[in-house]
Write a structure and sequence with these properties.
Elements lengths: L5 E8 L6 H10 L1 H6 L3 E8 L4 E8 L2 H10 L4 H8 L7 E6 L2
Antiparallel strand pairs: 1-3, 1-4, 2-3
Helix pairs in contact: 1-4
């Protein structure tokens, strides 16, 4: 039996002064890097009316999701995106697809 897909959900706020347009641009800038990672399936990014953001990434399996979490730390575009995120606001969760 093959392993189930993994769903990564990250909810966060931007640091003070970051606009939704800046956050959206930074999120889209990392898309090619994410798409090149092993096990990437798809990604959705959203902006809430309450000032929070959601980044949802589907991976082929949990091992791919965990491996990607390590690899993005060496990605310059990813670090630029992360610099716009208020660290204390981050809620990161992984789920197995049903």
């Amino acid at each position: 039996m093959s392993e189930q897909q993994a769903i990564e959900v990250v909810i966060f706020k931007g640091v003070d002064g970051v606009t939704p347009e800046q956050m959206r641009a930074a999120a889209h800038k990392v898309a090619p890097r994410l798409q090149a990672l092993a096990g990437f399936v798809s990604r959705s990014f959203g902006i809430g009316a309450d000032g929070r953001y959601v980044d949802i990434v589907h991976w082929q399996d949990m091992a791919s999701a965990q491996g990607a979490a390590k690899e993005v730390m060496d990605c310059p575009q990813c670090r630029e995106f992360f610099a716009l995120i208020a660290p204390e606001s981050v809620q990161m969760m992984h789920f197995q697809a049903g």
